[in-house]
Amino acid sequence: MNEDSLKEITRRTLFKQIGYGLGGVALSSILASEGFAQTAPLAQSPKPKAKNVIFLFMAGAPSQLDMFDYKPTLTKYSGQACPEEIMKGERFAFIQGTPKLLGSPHEFAQVGQSGQWVSSLMPHFKEIADDVAVVRSMSTDQFNHAPAQLFMNTGFQNPGRPALGSWLSYGIGTENKDLPGFVVLLSGANAPDGGKACWSNGFLPSIHQGVELRSQGDPVLFVSNPDG
Amino acid sequence: MFATTRVKWLGFAFAALPYPFIAAGAGQLAPQPKASFTHDVQPIFKAHCLSCHAGNSAQGGLRLDTPEGVLKAVVKGDPEKSELLRRIQGHGGLPRMPMGFAPLSNAQITAVKNWIAQGARIDSATRKHWAYVAPVLPKVPAVRLKTWVRNPIDSFVLARLEKEGLKPSPEASRETLIRRLSLDIIGLPPTPSETDAFLRDKSPNAYEKVVDRLLASPHYGEKMAQKWLDLARYADSDGFEKDLTRTAYKYRDWTIDAFNRNKPFDQFTIEQIAGDQLPNATIDNLIATGFCRNAMTNREDGVDQAEAYLNVEVDRVSTVATTFMGSTLACARCHDHKYDPFSQKDFYRMTAFFSNDLYTPKGNPVYSNVKWEEPEIKVPNKEQAAKLAILEKAIAALPKPTVDTLVPPEWTGANPTNVEAEKAKLDVDPIGTIIATGVNAPTELYKVSLDAPNESLTGLRLETIAGRNPGNLNFVITNIRVLADGKEVPLLGSSADFSQSDFDASKALHGDADNGWAVSPKGTDYHALVASFAQPVKAQKLQVWIAMRSKYVGHNLGAFRLSVTRSPEPHAEHGKSIAAVRRDALVAQKMELERTLPSALILRERDPKATPQEWLRTRGEFLSKAELLTAGTPTFLPAIPQGVRPSRLALAKWLVAKDNPLTARVQANRLWEGLFGTGLVETSEDFGTQGTPPSHPELLDWLAVRLRDGGWNVKDTIRLIVCSAAYRQSSVATPALLRKDPNNRLLARGSRFRLEAETIRDNALTVAGLLSRRVGGPSVMPDQPDGVWDIPYGGERWMRADGENRWRRGLYTTWKRSAPYPAFVAFDATSREACTVRRIRTNTPLQALALLNDTGMIAAAEALAGRMAKEGGKDPLRYGFRLATGRQPNAKELLRLQTLKNGLLTRYRRSPIEAAKLGGPEKAAMTLTANVLLNLDETITRE
């Protein structure tokens, strides 16, 4: 993902709109495969340290402004009109006139040796605070559900690109050639707004597509034995 | 932590994708005695250097993607003094290149060294990439094994084989050939009788006869469209979020029809990009522009429509570039192309061609729900067009409305002799008013019998009594029937004193749950509806049926009276003549028909005189407008002729102009790919420097020139290819050939590949005898597991089709972008969200699960079992095997099938409950055997 495109900080309006579900990425160290999808470049790969990546994509979760992203200045000006210099040149859907700023109503405190700021919503977080890396520099320029989810999962707001897990499957391979290297665990009743493109292989061979494990019906499509 | 690792992987993956093939194609197969930049050095740069050392932002200012850049790093004839060599050897104390990756191999370093030592020549051909120079007809090469050659294709293939010291393979068996031809040309397997006929046909042109029969089949267009629809990213939904259904199938049917008619490919191209701009554009020309309209549209509220529209333009130009130019132009959206000579300006100049199209903003900006709607047209089918024509003729034939004074009719109150309702209780009061009490059901039907004066009656009046209707004081009458002595009386039309908007009195006779006659907001008044009879009616008993079947439930009549008249002008009651009512009725029918016509998505120019322009966006960011550019073609390719307005039409004509180096090659390669499984250029989506070079460059150019200069004749090109000896070879690979050429790039044998997703289905359904042969029409919803189509909201559901529509060909399956058909996705089908040139074949366990357990496949197995039992005579297993694979089984195969079937039979006899689910032990055993037959590798493979 290109850092330039992540430059602008997000606005509160989009927090509810980003993201959905639970994406899981399973991968492991290289295993030579007979499949033609994996070819010579693997030999040049830097030795990977990560064995597995679990990526939780939680649409409708509480905002990071209420959890990890401490914004004291925003809290200070909460309830006041949004200054013009923040609005200038930006587009905000559904907002008429001058909106008001809204800071987090929750208390923040520094926890652990690292001194991470965490809100009072997560009282037990301090016990693991030093085992967690929090990235606060991510931002987006997408403010609608579907493009934002695609952007989050594939790095681009339009469909057609491989998802994170597809790239990992392509680049690193899978531990077991009979099982998929990229699985997606869906929770809740609905698919994400971004559709199945959120775990699509894009232009990579479809062996790298995310394999859905569903929470209703067959966990994997076509896995159950038909009648008789 | 995660982010940094990922970035590295991404860079590596991007850089790595196509090179192994280049190395294999150029390095191993065609060793050059003399050091050649193109063959020996450039592939190394591509594989190991260009991910950093290319484009304007090349690391350390060193570009290895241009001849000038390369020459800066070498001293001609002196490898040791060349910075390039020193760095890849790690000499001089600076980091060894490629940085962060394994060093180059000794062989690679030697290759670079030799090339520099020999003078570091970059031949002029490499200055311009081969694909950007218009093809000229190459000489057909001489070969030794002349008897093998059936047409010039074979000379090109054989010349290469002889150079490699290889011999072509023998011709495949006739059983294999006819199945290969059928699957390749019409996408369906041959029937046993077609195979038998071919086996018996001893004439010298038996093969060509099969080819011609298949090319003339209406299923040829379906097979060709199947591939084209991936390029056109054709789908039945908008994409994004709600992903609502759109009616787009007219474009799909246009494609099928265009291939069947063998529309010349240049015309085919022009109509799809600019059919609307052709002089006297027909409906078909307009439908063709659906190719452009198929872009996804983001209809979520709050979307900045200008940005969404730019995305649509970008999708259109990217699709055109990929489909016709085999170019990854879209890479230049944010920056100059890293590897090919497309500049960012080229990208936005090309995008500008799509910036002058019509849209109408609809919605309210205050609610952030404005949508830019693009045009649609209504497209009647033959039957509907005929109906429309009849209606239009009938309307035109009506007498001119006269201004005669109408005499109000006299009404005779009719005495109800019997009243019935489905749910309510009906009573008649002394003056003949019918009063409903009791249940106010969701929908109702009242039947009233009347004593009629035995005279010529012309009409019926229904008076509704004020304030008595139980449903919001309103009612919706959806239909009225009149029976005279038990015989249906055709009604001419209806009128009323008042009608609710959109619920006009004329709709009281339509029987349509969506509308009908209603009277809100005047439900508290008396109203009257008059229905006239088409012919005067003489009867003793009349029966009047009043239906209230509206989808707006509970809107039933509370109290009403009926009367009849003999007046020649019954509608004079409402100041209308019979003629006027007849006209109203016909006009209403016509409007109703037009409402139900399918629509097609089309393009129209906003301003047919304007020169389209588009802003270059810095880094591709919508808000960063940098420079307003006029539509134009990439600067390194031919320009649009002077004086021609740069419109979509100009772009389309430019694509198929004689000096365009790409379109003919790309299309010839695509046709080859469809028949051999792999193109002469394997990366059929990328003819740029990152694509694989053609395995047979002269053959590709020969085919391209022949296509371009031979009237862009697609069927003719296909006929030529399949009639070659190269195509007819057996696909059996000897161990030696497998070692020498594992991917069959040299074509020393026939190709063999797994069928495409839709063809796997079509093949199984044909074998089972279930396939519907109907061509075209609305998309259908065959068997699909529950819960696949679980969109966030929007209320649409997958409703499994019944009857014929359950067994249509795969290309008619409803293509929902956010939830594509899972049995197809398992076999590498795409979601059609973006243009896809090539479905890269993969093998996964999900495919076996889909073939074994999908309910559609089980149904096919049941049908095949039935067919084997019914048509297979004494040897149903042999018959089933032959249906599935197109050939006779050998004794060993037959024995294995027999053993399987017997084993299953024994098992089912022991478990009668399980067996009963499939119709008893015998049927169950046969069904599972059929399931195995449909799962055979040979069944889903084109040999």
Per-chain topology:
The complex is a heterodimer of chains A (228) and B (943).
Chain A (H helix, E strand, L loop, with lengths): L21 E4 L27 E3 L16 H5 L7 H4 L20 E4 L4 E4 L25 H10 L9 H9 L10 E3 L25 E3 L15
Parallel strand pairs in A: 5-6
Antiparallel strand pairs in A: 1-2, 1-5, 3-4
Chain B lengths: L1 H15 L2 H10 L8 H12 L18 H6 L10 H7 L16 H12 L6 H4 L24 H12 L10 H12 L6 H9 L5 H10 L2 H14 L17 H12 L4 H10 L8 H6 L1 H4 L11 H21 L18 H9 L7 E3 L8 E3 L2 E3 L3 H16 L14 E2 L1 E7 L3 E4 L5 E4 L6 E8 L5 E8 L14 E6 L2 E2 L2 E6 L30 E11 L3 E8 L10 E7 L12 H19 L2 E3 L11 E5 L7 E6 L17 H8 L7 H14 L20 H13 L4 H9 L2 H4 L6 H6 L12 E2 L2 H12 L53 H4 L19 H9 L1 H17 L4 H10 L5 H20 L1 H5 L4 H15 L5 E2 L1
Antiparallel strand pairs in B: 1-2, 3-16, 4-15, 5-8, 6-7, 7-15, 8-14, 9-13, 9-15, 10-11, 10-14, 12-13, 17-18, 19-20
Helix pairs in contact in B: 2-3, 3-6, 9-10, 9-11, 12-13, 14-21, 17-18, 19-20, 22-23, 22-24, 27-30, 29-30, 30-31, 30-34, 31-34, 32-34
Summary, kept brief:
By secondary structure, chain A is low in regular secondary structure.
Describe the protein in words.
The complex is a heterodimer of chains A (about 230) and B (about 950). With about 230 residues, chain A is largely without helices or strands. Chain A has a domain at about 30-60 and about 135-230. Chain A has 4 helices and 6 strands; from the N terminus they run E-E-H-H-E-E-H-H-E-E. Chain A has a 4-stranded mixed beta sheet with strand order 2-1-5-6, covered by helices on one side. Chain A has a two-stranded antiparallel ribbon with strand order 3-4. In chain A, a hairpin with a 4-residue loop joins strand 3 and strand 4 (about 115-120). Chain A is globular, with a radius of gyration of 21 Å. The N and C termini of chain A lie far apart (about 50 Å). Mean pLDDT of chain A is about 75; it is low at about 1-45. Helix content of chain B is about 40%, strand content about 10%. In chain B, strands 4, 6, 7, 9, 12, 13 and 15 form a 7-stranded antiparallel beta sheet that branches. In chain B, strands 5-8-14-10-11 form a 5-stranded antiparallel beta sheet, with no helix packed on it. A two-stranded antiparallel ribbon of chain B has the order 1-2. In chain B, a hairpin with a 5-residue loop joins strand 6 (about 425-430) and strand 7 (about 435). In chain B, helix 3 (about 35-50) crosses helix 6 and helix 22 packs across helix 23. The two termini of chain B are about 50 Å apart. In chain B, about 45% of the residues are buried. Residues about 1-30 of chain B have low confidence and may be disordered. Classes of the chains: A little secondary structure (about 230), B alpha+beta (about 950). At the A-B interface, helix 3 and helix 4 of A face helix 1, helix 17, helix 28, helix 29 and helix 34 of B.
